[in-house]
Amino acid sequence: MLTSVRSLLAATLIAGSAFAASPALAEDTDPPSDFTVTGNAAIVTDYRFRGLSLSGGDFAVQGSINVNHSSGLYIGTWASSLEQDALDIYGSTEVDVYAGWTGKVSSALTADVGLLYYVYPGGSFGDGNVFEPYASLTAAIGPASAKFGLNYAWKQDSLGGDDNLYLYSDWSLAVPSTPITVTAHAGYTDGALSPKRLTLSGTGGGWDYSLGASATLYKGLSIGVAYVGVDGASINSFSNDAVVGTLKYSF
Length: 251
Fold this sequence. Notes:
Blueprint: H1 3-21, E1 35-44, E2 48-49, E3 52-53, E4 60-69, E5 73-81, E6 93-104, E7 109-119, E8 130-141, E9 144-156, E10 162-174, E11 180-191, H2 195-198, E12 206-218, E13 221-230, E14 242-250
Antiparallel strand pairs: 1-4, 1-14, 2-3, 4-5, 5-6, 6-7, 7-8, 8-9, 9-10, 10-11, 11-12, 12-13, 13-14
InterPro entries: CHP02001 (IPR010239)
Pfam families: Gcw_chp (PF09694)
Protein name: Porin
């Protein structure tokens, strides 16, 4: 089940090692590259997507790799293991491919716009795949930041012929003189992916929220924990409130 994800993580670590070693091979007079590569590998106790579990309440292995240009343009991919669904629509792996632009629009505001494509290569190909444009603004004041964003998926067969709108806000505060960052999140889904629809408890939109903290253990290695909740009926290992732990290495 985790074969493709493990391959991605291995490639991520190899790429990270290669780029970490490259400065030693370059001349001191070489100009800095316009391109950088970043990424991460993580283990989570539960893969929660907008409050709902896509790993059946079990552990998931995840990873990403991004190519960034000095202009602000970027392209990347992120993957996670999933719980095999009964209809085999999604299979056991999710792979997200995205591209966009991020940059300063004022001294305190950073914008991010792009297009995200959710792909489920192990399922009934195409049945679950979704295109979703996104946009956000992030304001930073000292150790605190606030992000406001939206994702909108137009009407697609994979959404049952419906569309979906997701509005959200993320807040973070780096505690001074400590390796700890406190985070909070609130999101509202209206459309095909509403938690009320997916838990068969209504037809309107629904909220998801979380409150957590993370700490840097050593360089790129961090650990985190968050309490996650979501509207709709409480279904064990899907939409029940949960505490989610994360161990992540970023480069």
